[in-house]
Amino acid sequence: MTNRRYVDKYRPRRLRSMAGQRGAVAQLDGLLRGGKVRGNTILISGPYGSGKTTLARIVAKAVNCQTTGPGEACGKCQSCKTNISRHPDIEEINSAEARGIDDTRRIIELSRLSARYGTRVFILDELHQLTPQASQAFLKDLEEPPAHVAYILVTTDPWKLLPTIRSRSTHIKLGEVRTPELVKFLTKVATKEELPFSKEILTYISELSGGHIRDALNLLEQLASSAADATTDEAKELLPQLQEEILGASPAVLVPKYVQALLTGSISPIIHLRKVDNHEHFLKLVVNFLKDYIILKKEPRMIDDKSMTSFAKATKGKITDDIDSLVSIFEYHLDALERINRRSIEPLDAADLVVLKSSQLLSR
């Protein structure tokens, strides 16, 4: 076996190799086969670790394949064999760093160059972080790309993009991968790596990862390195510790911990907030989590989510289940996001304020 990390070694190279995301894969396959990638702006949105950038790279390679024509890349022609970082027609740009008007002008200038393999593809990660001036300068090109150009926008926060960009883009939405699909993917990886882990262990890893492929692969790899011969019971005992070590700052892990502490009236969630890189994104995840929890408390049959059910069972009697209080705390988070979006408060300050208001509410 090679020493490459699982997340790199098992990164899908073709649409049909993606775990889950069937709707998104079908949409992209249709665009490729219909010749609708060139001269188009595609918006791929979804939570972290859901495969957004992977899909963008697959599309970029497929549209420039010299052998198979529309659809999947062959993986054998010169274009397919060229690494994306060295590919003459594919530019991958982190808009969180290249976010100014000069960066935008450089991209527009590059887009005017002819393509060696047919289509110049610009993968623009986190485009919503461009400055307002840069966004305006980019608007015309994103609305009407040159015929030989494809823009692929990758973001966790599509609602932050200018409405005109969203409306003119072909929007592909991703979500967390469902446990059965993730178990199937991990089973293939475990078989190739000759790992003896049972389906029960792989299911447990899938649930711990919260539907995030990257986290699941990291957990599987660490378990393989730490205890490849572990029994099911031994693995279940070890995995939470590995989860804490590997995914300690992962939103999938932090959100339930934050919510549990928050709903006790404690101000300790402020500590969790210091482990977060993107507080706005974190608050959005908390909003979704709280919404599902409130629905579960009101109408249990409406929520078919094992991780949420497990959370409710584990915290029963330990956190507030007063619906009025839960709704108020839910609204605090929505208000914080609105203020962040208006740029009237720093994201961390808004998050801290939510914790303090929630604590005050529950201490009455």
Beta-strand level of the residues, as a percent range?
Answer: 5-15%
At the fourth CATH level, what is the homologous superfamily of the largest domain? P-loop containing nucleotide triphosphate hydrolases
Sequence of strands across the biggest β-sheet? 2-3-4-1-5
Q: Please bin the fraction of helical residues.
A: 40-55%
How does CATH name the architecture of the largest domain? Answer: 3-Layer(aba) Sandwich
Outline, from the CA principal axes? Answer: globular
Structural class per helix/strand content?
alpha/beta
Q: Tell me about the biggest sheet?
A: 5 strands, parallel
What is the chain-wise order of helices and strands? HHEHHEHEHEHEHHHHHHHHHH
Q: Measure the end-to-end span.
A: 59 Å
Detail the poorly predicted runs.
none
What's the pLDDT, averaged over the residues? 87
Query: How many structural domains?
Result: 3
Give the radius of gyration. 22 Å
Number of DSSP strand runs: 5
Named CATH topology of the largest domain: Rossmann fold
Which CATH C-level class of the largest domain is it? Alpha Beta
Helix count, DSSP H or I runs of 4 or more residues: 17
SSE layout:
Layout lengths: L5 H4 L12 H12 L6 E6 L6 H12 L14 H4 L8 E5 L6 H11 L8 E6 L6 H12 L5 E7 L7 H6 L1 E4 L5 H14 L6 H11 L3 H15 L4 H15 L4 H12 L6 H5 L5 H20 L7 H10 L7 H19 L5 H16 L2
Parallel strand pairs: 1-4, 1-5, 2-3, 3-4
Helix pairs in contact: 5-6, 8-9, 9-10, 9-11, 10-11, 12-14, 14-16, 16-17
Please tag this protein with its features.
364 residues; alpha/beta; Rossmann fold; Helicase, Ruva Protein, domain 3; Zinc Finger, Delta Prime, domain 3; 3 domains; 5-stranded parallel sheet; 5 strands
